[in-house]
Amino acid sequence: MMPTCGKSIRYRQLIVDTDLGLDDLVALAILRLQQCHILAHQSLPNHVTNFRICGVTITSGISTANFQNAQLLRRLLPSGTPVYVSAAEAAKHLFQEKPDWWNRTSRTVRHFLSSLPATKPLSHIQQSSIHENEGISAEEYIANHLHDPDVDILCMAPLTTISEAIDIFMRKNPGLSVLSKFYIMGGILNDSKQTKRGESTAPFGYREFSAETKRNTANCQGLTRTSTSSKDSSNEHNQFGEFNFALDIASARKVLAVVTAHIITVEACTLLPVYLRVGSRSTNLRSMLECRHGREQQTDAADKLIEVSVSRDILLKLLLEFGTNETQWDSITAAIYCNIFHSNRDQKLTPINPNDFFLSDLGVCNFLRVEASYAVNDLCNWRSVDGYVPDESIEKCHWIHPAFSLEDESTFFHFLSSILFGI
């Protein structure tokens, strides 16, 4: 049956925007397998996000948004999931000479997707539905669902497509508000060369800011989340950044000025650096997988379904082939969307008024002030299936997720073990 984004009492309807990096593939595989478990088990913890993937959109970034990549991506997704290609003009950075790692990652993505079995022939109804949607761009598809409070949009790519979708929505629906919920992987708080959390992954490495941004940054001195002095902070802001936001900073600024979102920065979705592991015991993902792979898996009614078996095999293949290096960023963002860190992180979210949120040219997040007066209330209710918002002021805030902790890492690995092996 073709997934749809119609009103649903039971499930959140999820649209995923991806630029097809390796971590995107892991994220999508996690979401597919988690969806299998949700559909198979009728009783889940209240905090777990009940969702169905109703569509995936491709934005140019690591990989190019084209119909060839869309066809390959369908091999990774639940059967019949519609995939829409962005019609937006690619960010100007994509026409520059790319670093070697960029093209290498794109080739690896295509090679992995090509290694998966081709999707089974669809039913006549599914084929007809896909044919009808062939002429719909990713921007139009997203725009058609921006007024639906039951729709969540998980952004794991530059925000080019989202920005264009908002423009289309506003032109077609003057006076209407965006009601869908956004979860955005993007931005960075501090230079990872110092924190050792992830990488400062601006598209083309370190570069100088424009004169305008230098002036704006100077106005925010002492108010950003950084442990350095104002003088040192100014130098840092001339250098580091984050890939998704930096690739199309204009779109990132526009989107975050129009909608409120859960913002998951690099620090919030990066595995712990070595220096934070001293004297600590933590699970190593690769050793966990190698130890458990090949053992007889626990079986239940859900395991008899082909979809569960296929989904598990794809995720396990990704994790065994690429291991810990790609089990972060977007894949942790997917786990955050699933709300597996409920007890660890909800009370640590930082509310930021959009008027007090500033992005540097390379995607560094600056806060003019923190809305400490806003209570974090029950965020489980805020993201519940009926769209209940306990406090109107909360709905008007961006929510900045906390840095990934050792406890979070343990929870994440346990989650992967649970959906893979039933442990």
Tell me what you see in this structure:
The chain is of the alpha/beta class. Helices cover 40% and strands 11% of the residues. The protein has 18 helices and ten strands. It has helices spanning 22-40, 67-73, 100-115, 124-133, 138-143, 160-172, 192-195, 211-219, 230-237, 243-247, 249-258, 285-292, 306-322, 330-338, 342-345, 379-382, 392-395, 406-421, and strands spanning 12-18, 51-58, 83-85, 151-156, 181-185, 261-264, 350-352, 357-359, 365-367, 398-400. The strands form two sheets. It has an eight-stranded mixed β-sheet. A two-stranded antiparallel ribbon has the order 8-9. α1 packs antiparallel against α13. The longest helix is centred in the N-terminal third of the chain and has 19 residues, at 22-40. The radius of gyration is 21 Å and the shape is globular. Mean pLDDT is 77; it is low at 206-238, 298-304 and 371-393.
